[in-house]
Amino acid sequence: MQILENKTALVTGAASGIGKAIALRLAGVGASVAVADLDRSAAVPVAAEIAAMGRRAVAVEMDVADEKAVEQGFATARAELGLIDILVSNAGIQIVNPIESFAFADWRKMMGIHLDGAFLTTRAALPDMYRNDRGGVVIYIGSVHSHEASPLKSAYVTAKHGLLGLSRVLAKEGAAHNVRSYVVCPGFVRTPLVEKQIPEQARELGISEEEVVRKVMLGQTVDGVFTTADDVAQTVEFLTSFPSAALTGQSFVVSHGWFMQ
Ligand code: NAD
């Protein structure tokens, strides 16, 4: 018997990068997985990969910043796979700019995806988890930037700090219903989100792309190595199957020593 046999997980932003690695890893230990992303067609190959592993999966179209789309996406996932036991709120984007030239529309977009998205998906998942106090696990993908600041990332740092607050409140409200809540905080992982930042930061900071990688991204790690999507996915797997509420409300930094709590 696999550790997540008979459990259903919904992972947002699961068509790419960290979310995809999490979806595949949870399926690898027995979970049925709803692969949610902005564009359903991008989620289909991940769902197909899971199905090929002999697990149940559904590709779900869901803009996490849109209340109706979140409700509809959960209804689809539930209809296909049953009640949700595990939510991984992972969908995210990055927009970098100094505060004085940060467009308000970009600020709101960042808050919409990172914070509205975390709230709306949590609210949609809780009725399943609270039913008969059957319980569940909610994991927010934060960042080292949930604890640390970097120039140019005002909206990202603000939003990622905000997830700690939501997670801690859920840890307290959810405890009576056996719901546990965590934030997993990766260092730099070389996904499309980070690839896009390398030339942007080089331009903004007036340094080469190689220096952005070596100094800005990896300069404070203990080994000069990028965190991998699987480093993050393994941490998520550990938390989904942790057997008590001992760790609830905590955040876990996965950063090759860049940030130590
Ligand atoms: P990615 O760009 O590879 O994947 C993000 C996914 O989210 C994409 O599939 C995208 O379509 C989806 N998405 C974007 N907006 C969405 C929306 N409104 N609704 C639903 N899905 C949406 O990025 P990634 O690097 O895998 O990032 C995943 C999460 O990890 C993000 O929350 C990010 O902030 C966080 N994170 C990433 C790093 C890193 O270095 N890559 C570090 C720390 C934290």
UniProtKB/TrEMBL annotation:
It holds the Pfam family adh_short. Keywords: Oxidoreductase. InterPro entries: 3-OHbutyrate_DH, NAD(P)-bd_dom_sf, Sc_DH/Rdtase_CS, SDR, SDR_fam. It is an enzyme of class 1 (oxidoreductase). It comes from the Bacteria. GO terms for molecular function: 3-hydroxybutyrate dehydrogenase activity. Its EC number is 1.1.1.30. Belongs to the short-chain dehydrogenases/reductases (SDR) family. PANTHER family: 3-OXOACYL-(ACYL-CARRIER-PROTEIN) REDUCTASE, 3-OXOACYL-[ACYL-CARRIER-PROTEIN] REDUCTASE FABG. This is 3-hydroxybutyrate dehydrogenase.
